[in-house]
Amino acid sequence: MIKIIKKEKLAEGVTRLVLNAPLIAQKAMAGQFVILRPTEKGERIPLTIADYHRERGELTVIYQTVGRTTAELDTLGEGDSILNVAGPLGKASELEGMKKVAVIGGGLGCAIAYPQAKALHEKGADVDMIAGFRSRELIILEDEMRACAKLTIMTDDGSYGQKGLVTDALKEKILRGVSYDTVIAIGPPIMMKYVSLLTKEYGIRTIVSMNPIMIDGTGMCGGCRLTVDGKTKFACVDGPDFDGHLVDFDELMRRNATYRSDEQEQMKRFHECNLFKGIRQGEV
Amino acid sequence: MANMQKNKTPMREQLPEVRNKNWEEVACGYTPEEAMNEAARCLGCKDPLCRKGCPVSVRIPEFLSLVTKGEFAEAYRVIRSTNSLPAISGRVCPQETQCEGKCVRGLKGEPVAIGRLERFCADYAMAEGEASTCSGSCTSCTGCTASSDKIKVAVVGSGPAGLSCAGDLAARGYAVTVFEALHKAGGVLVYGIPEFRLPKDIVAKEIRSLEDQGVEIQTDMVIGKILSVDELFTLGYQAVFIASGAGLPKFMGIEGENANGVYSANEFLTRINLMKAYREDYGTPIRKGKAVAVVGGGNVAMDAARSAKRLGAEHVYIIYRRGEKEMPARREEIHHAKEEGIEFLLLTNPTKINTDETGNVSSITCIRMALGEPDASGRRSPIAVEGSEYDLTVDTVIIAMGTAPNPLIRMTTPGLETDKRGCFVTSDGTTTTREGVFAGGDAVTGAATVILAMGAGRDAAEKIDQYIKSKQ
């Protein structure tokens, strides 16, 4: 049981949790994730570690309420406990030796991209951050990102920052002559695919972070497998970071859609059952 | 005078056409009368070969003679003195190649149903509330009373090897902590073997009986990540037993293997057994295929096939490249699978998985095989028959081609050697290349059986005890 110390709404449907998890906080590194199961009948879901504080024993995760399990998680409040949290899992991001970096976050991906930008900034790298959102209401972590990087915000509808995609902003910077040694892209697979295609044209090393379907997070199920440079890799133990120029994104997107109809069904069932109960999980 | 009835006393089973639609246990167990009748078939050999065939040396004739007399609780204590998990081994051991394979009665007729009787005694003891006490007859026991100055030993993994080692060490007076990576203890007993073969409340009861004995279990602890083996020593553990199993699924490396609808048997079975995907009240999604191909011929393949059938598949095929005789699965599992309507495609090997335009599995291309000369394993090696490819329409493929040990511990423990398969190198089956670190079960042997892992756990407890005493 892991206790929720702080719960904060960052944007519509996007929530930040600070957890009391001293053992995990002791070992956590940027780029790693935890597997979490909110209730006895819920799924195990991977969430990337958004921040940690070793002395205070705190671990931060950010989630978007999209399916039954995140909806169940969202019923918990400050002082409540999450049934299971295991981690830190996956390999830590390798950020050494980078000098001029573009860190690109798409939507909730900013929650994962931001700690990388912060870590790079602390290591003395010059960081440009490009953050993309659908619209103004969905923007998260603006102040935090601005504090560690030169921030460009892009919105699909132009309601804030510049109108357009993150790739538009990246391309403009490259054409203006900014010379990046590395691009880090974290967000929806389609975004990471197009960032990787763009940087490949210009020969810029690109790292992407995977968050596919998985159960155990230790290499046991193979559900998170993806093709990298023609070889099958497990995102949970071989990643989650991979070379964006070598990942088969089309296969990844197909695999991520495996349970889409089940998820919608489960969400419907979750809402119906909560409607009837009218109380929060765990209060029975 | 022994009961000279030639065949085993039959055990009631759910009818195949009923059970292949539910998840209840297939075999219903003996009544006391049936058990006494069957146990009386034992001749009480002076030099009991059955015991030699048992990886944990259960005193078989002794417990059978007690069953004959109706002294079931006492019989349970005899079993429990060398076997930490009798309700489990009685259900899943390959008795035909072990105790029962050596039974003299098997020469003319069927051997004594030792496995069924072991299960009977364990179930009896559980029902009577006798199971959660320590066996009382372990001679090496230094007393089960709790004391704070007990020596600490860490066990990594709560599968059969880890649990059996933990039970034996606790009986020897050690303070044992078992670290489990998943949210529930039991390892393959909870994520791998289905409910209809090994009910999960039986596993939970066996684990509770170990906890009553003083074993502490910590779940959600991925050793190699949250704590390294070296850190366990700095936390005061005097020895570490690694029983992390063989959990890494093998794939075939054929085209289409990453298509939607292709599962490792581990993923498919974990979703069903650990995550209860077959129950409406759980949130776990699973593909309920109409036509399912399971590739492989072991117990895991049978479990996956029979589970797919229970999820409602119309056709479930076992695709195996050798013949039935060569199948590594227990005879009983093959028999049960056939009864339940699983279709066996023997001497057949998949070469390619085909998909529709959305990336979902649409069929599997297979090639027919013929048996050639015996290979290193003594089994005749299969050779592809050229030009015999054909497509089989399926929407789900489950790969049950075996598993390899998980690399997390080997990657994070300097000086701990593994062989080229990733299995820990040991000098005697248990002692690793690092002082104070012992290993056993599938992590050493590669994927094998529950009872071999339990035997390894028992050996390790002995070695760990010797090691710690030698240091004092």
Structure description:
The complex is a heterodimer of chains A (284) and B (472). Chain A has 284 residues and is of the alpha/beta class. In chain A, 31% of the residues lie in helices and 32% in strands. Chain A has nine helices and 16 strands. Chain A has a seven-stranded antiparallel beta sheet. In chain A, strands 11-10-9-8-12-13-16 form a seven-stranded mixed beta sheet, sandwiched between helices. Chain A has a two-stranded antiparallel ribbon with strand order 14-15. Chain A starts with a strand and ends in a 7-residue tail after the last helix. Chain B has 472 residues and is α/β, with parallel strands linked by helices. Chain B has three domains: 12-127, Alpha-helical ferredoxin (Fumarate Reductase Iron-sulfur Protein, Chain B, domain 2, Orthogonal Bundle), CATH 1.10.1060; 152-247 and 404-471, FAD/NAD(P)-binding domain, CATH 3.50.50; 251-401, FAD/NAD(P)-binding domain (3-Layer(bba) Sandwich). In chain B, 33% of the residues lie in helices and 16% in strands. Chain B has 18 helices and 16 strands. Chain B has a five-stranded parallel beta sheet with strand order 3-2-1-4-16. In chain B, helix 5 (72-80) packs across helix 8 (114-127), helix 6 runs antiparallel to helix 8 (114-127) and helix 13 packs across helix 14 (299-310). The model of chain B is unreliable at 132-146 (pLDDT under 50). At the A-B interface, helix 1, helix 2, strand 7, strand 14 and helix 8 of A face strand 5 and helix 13 of B.
List the helices and strands and how they pair.
The complex is a heterodimer of chains A (284) and B (472).
Chain A: E1 2-11, E2 14-20, H1 22-27, E3 33-37, E4 45-53, E5 58-64, H2 68-74, E6 81-82, E7 84-89, E8 100-106, H3 110-122, E9 126-133, H4 142-148, E10 150-155, E11 162-163, H5 166-175, E12 182-186, H6 189-202, E13 205-209, E14 225-228, E15 231-234, H7 235-238, E16 241-243, H8 249-256, H9 260-277
Parallel strand pairs in A: 8-9, 8-12, 9-10, 10-11, 12-13
Antiparallel strand pairs in A: 1-2, 1-6, 2-5, 3-4, 3-7, 4-5, 13-16, 14-15
Chain B: H1 16-19, H2 32-39, H3 49-52, H4 60-68, H5 72-80, H6 86-92, H7 99-102, H8 114-127, E1 152-156, H9 160-171, E2 175-179, H10 188-191, H11 200-212, E3 216-218, H12 229-234, E4 239-242, E5 248-249, E6 262-264, H13 265-273, E7 291-295, H14 299-310, E8 315-319, H15 331-339, E9 343-345, E10 348-355, E11 361-374, E12 380-384, E13 390-393, E14 396-399, E15 403-404, H16 408-412, E16 437-439, H17 442-445, H18 450-471
Parallel strand pairs in B: 1-2, 1-4, 2-3, 4-16, 6-14, 7-8, 7-14, 8-9
Antiparallel strand pairs in B: 5-15, 10-11, 11-12, 11-13
